[in-house]
Design brief:
This protein has 23 helices and 27 strands. The protein is α+β, with helices and mostly antiparallel strands. The structure holds ligand C2E and magnesium ion (2 copies).
């Protein structure tokens, strides 16, 4: 070992002369063994080296020492060594010391070079915006930053040391809405070894919300880890600038509302969605009637103020999913989605919105202690129509708006003239129906129901509206309207009242016919329906067992339990229940069995084609047999000829109602015909 090792070795007396030196030592020092032994330690070591006393002290204390020193070659030049010195005993028991040393010049040079590079990197990264890093994900998913430059302090507000081993604390600083996406992007980059680039938000203790971008190249390490080299920088300013540009491009600077570009975008989406979902929507042009005058007379700041306020009022009126846009001076456009699946109902809904817009614009604006009123003219166009594009829709609404203006401002006009007509007509009807109820324009007719012998054993009350100008309005024209507007509640109650008064009179006159009253679903479901009926029965003294309520099957679709309870309560009072238009609705046999019903009325449409049509005949037969099995009576509606009557009677239909026997006739006429001659007022 002594002869062949590449390290230099001396054998010496402890603290004394060098006894031998190996060939490697001779080569390093450029001296022969004899020369070395002759020169001794004091010449071969650099005695001025400040590291020397420490080494000597260590060896004396511990018996061995290790360290770095300078040595002197034969030619007098100094060089760096790394050395160990230890005491040992030879075979004779003599204490000796060994000194083993190795030229350290190259290693020191490399170390210095490395340090210089680290310093360089540090210096460079000090002046780079953001942080340079090595980022590592272990196979177990642990995240760490083996290297991170100083910039870590600004980018994440942590020191590089804090995240060297474990970077999980940084996840808490990522915006919760972005965290999943950030983690997903890391995984993707790790799997594909494609660069990791991502923009996301962080929330930092000092800086608050900031935008960050990362950009790093991954590599796979032998242990399955992924190591990225890259940087992370602040892009908050850029993001804000982008948002600003977006606002400029798509929003009106004065009011903050969407501008024409964004409106077009939204209309495009709405059209597609409306076609897909079979829903109608509307575009409304709103033009302020006297904005120009106010603006000219009072100046632009007042004008601007007015526009801003109008914008706010319009926005407050609409749902979030609708759009209010400003597309020019005093022109606003409303885009309203999902009005309904029926075109006429949608038109009415649009009209309701437009009327609300008109009403909100009607309210005066208070600006600098002055009060201004600027009414609006509104044009509506419905979508989607076949082939209709964005520009068509905008043009149509614009056209309608001009019509509204030209017919006297502060108006609402539809582009579709038929809609205009329909909507206006309904609005008028609605107002008039209100009056009709108050001024006694409603009349009751009765249609007899006859038994197998042709005897009128019951009658159905049917309401009529005797309009001062329109004449007799049929119920199909105003009952649905009354249902929609809620007028059905007072109207329906009035009919029940009339029925009960009539029943009381009939009882006094000895008439035993039952009277049927049609009860709308909305009326039946109203909170106080049961107590109101009870109060009417009490105040009129009517025999409840002669009162029949006709309801339709649609009633049972909603809230079945509640319905069942309510019917049972009324049945307890003695009132009987009949299913009107049976067979046209939700015909579930289940409710027939569970409800305390009295009768079914087979809808006119089935009766019409008996006994010729095989299918309808079969349906009527089965309704009859099923009803009888369940203990229900059956009335056939709309019996118009003898053949129908014969067929129905042959199949045990209990009662028949239709033009063949009697038209609906005014209540007093019917009572007189039944033989009542009292003097009570109608
Ligand atoms: P409904 O209860 O099914 O009434 C039967 C309708 O059929 C009545 O029409 C009646 O005049 C008609 N009709 C009777 N016999 C024949 C016939 O042989 N042939 C044909 N083609 N028709 C016949 P009306 O009076 O126009 O009433 C229509 C609907 O209006 C009623 O249908 C009912 O749903 C509703 N209605 C009427 N009065 C009231 C009411 O006071 N309250 C409520 N909620 N609805 C009512
Ligand atoms: Mg009826
Ligand atoms: Mg009916």
């Amino acid at each position: 070992l002594f002869e062949h090792t590449m390290d230099g070795v001396f054998q010496a007396e402890p603290g004394g002369a060098i006894l031998s030196a190996n060939p490697a030592a001779c080569a390093m020092l450029g001296l022969s063994e004899a020369e070395i032994c002759q020169r001794g330690r004091s010449e071969l070591l650099d005695l001025s080296d400040p590291r020397l006393p420490g080494l000597i002290a260590a060896r004396q204390r511990d018996g061995q020492a290790r360290g770095e020193l300078r040595m002197r070659r034969g030619d007098g030049t100094l060089f760096e060594v790394e050395l160990t010195s230890a005491l040992y005993q030879d075979r004779a028991g003599r204490w000796l010391s060994s000194i083993v040393f190795r030229d350290n010049t190259e290693r020191r040079r490399l170390n210095q070079q490395l340090q210089a590079q680290v310093n360089l990197l540090d210096n460079l990264s000090q002046n780079v915006p953001g942080v340079l890093y090595q980022f590592q994900m272990s196979p177990d998913g642990r995240l760490s930053y083996p290297f991170a430059s100083h910039g870590m302090r600004t980018i994440y507000e942590v020191t590089p040391e804090q995240v060297r081993e474990d970077a999980s604390m940084l996840l808490e600083r990522i915006h919760p809405d972005d965290l999943q996406d950030v983690l997903g992007s890391i995984q993707t980059s790790a799997q594909t070894l494609q660069p990791w680039r991502f923009e996301y938000r962080v929330i930092l203790p000092e800086q608050g919300l900031r935008w960050r971008v990362c950009n790093a190249q991954p590599e796979r390490l032998p242990d399955g880890s992924t190591l990225w080299h890259g940087f992370n920088a602040d892009i908050t300013d850029r993001k804000e600038a982008e948002a600003h540009t977006f606002r400029l491009a798509y929003f009106d600077a004065l009011t903050g509302l969407p501008n024409r570009s964004l409106l077009r975008d939204r209309i495009d989406q709405s059209l597609a969605q409306a076609r897909r979902n079979r829903q109608y929507g509307a575009v409304m042009f709103v033009d302020l009637d006297n904005f120009k005058q106010i603006n000219d007379a009072r100046g632009h700041s007042v004008g601007d103020h007015l526009l801003t306020e109008v914008a706010q009022r319009l926005q407050a009126l609409l749902r979030v999913e609708d759009t209010v846009a400003r597309i020019g001076g005093d022109e606003f456009v409303l885009l309203i989605n999902d009005l309904g699946q029926d075109v006429e109902a949608s038109a009415r809904a649009a009209m309701t919105v437009a009327e609300r817009v008109r009403a909100t614009l009607d309210r005066p604006h208070q600006i600098d202690s002055f009060s201004y009123t600027s009414t609006g003219s509104i044009g509506i166009s419905l979508f989607p129509k076949a082939g209709q594009q964005i520009d068509d829709l905008l043009r149509e609404a614009d056209t309608a708006m001009y019509r509204a203006k030209s017919t006297g401002r502060n108006r609402v006009a539809f582009f579709e003239l038929t809609m205009q007509h329909e909507v206006e007509e309904r609005l008028a009807l609605e107002q008039e129906l209100n009056e009709a109820l108050a001024t006694g324009q409603l009349r009751l007719h009765v249609q007899s129901q006859v038994d197998a012998h042709g005897q009128a054993v019951a009658g159905e009350l049917l309401v009529r509206w005797l309009h001062p100008l329109r004449g007799l309005v049929p119920p199909m024209r105003f009952i649905p309207l009354a249902e929609e507007t809620g007028l059905i509640l007072p109207l329906g109650e009035w009919v029940i009242e009339q029925a009960c008064q009539t029943l009381a009179r009939m009882q006094r006159g000895g008439l035993t016919q039952a009277l049927s009253v049609n009860v709308s679903a909305r009326q039946f479901r109203s909170d106080d329906f049961v107590p109101r009926v009870r109060a009417i029965l009490q105040s009129t003294g009517a025999p409840a067992h002669q009162l029949i309520f006709e309801v339709t099957e649609s009633l049972f679709i909603q809230d079945w339990e509640h319905c069942l309870r309510r019917i049972s309560e009324l049945v307890q009072m003695g009132i009987r229940f009949s299913i009107d238009d049976f067979g046209t609705g939700y015909s579930s046999l289940r409710y027939l069995q569970r409800l305390p019903l009295f009768e079914l009325k087979i809808d006119r449409s089935f009766v019409q084609d008996t006994p010729h049509d095989v299918n309808d005949t079969a349906i009527v037969r089965s309704i009859l047999s099923m009803a009888h099995h369940l203990g229900l009576e059956v009335v056939a509606e709309g019996v118009e000829n003898r053949a129908q009557a014969d067929f129905l009677l042959a199949n045990q239909c209990d009662r028949l109602q239709g033009y063949l026997f009697a038209q609906p006739q005014p209540l007093e006429d019917w009572l007189a015909q039944m033989g009542l001659n009292d003097t009570s007022p109608a």
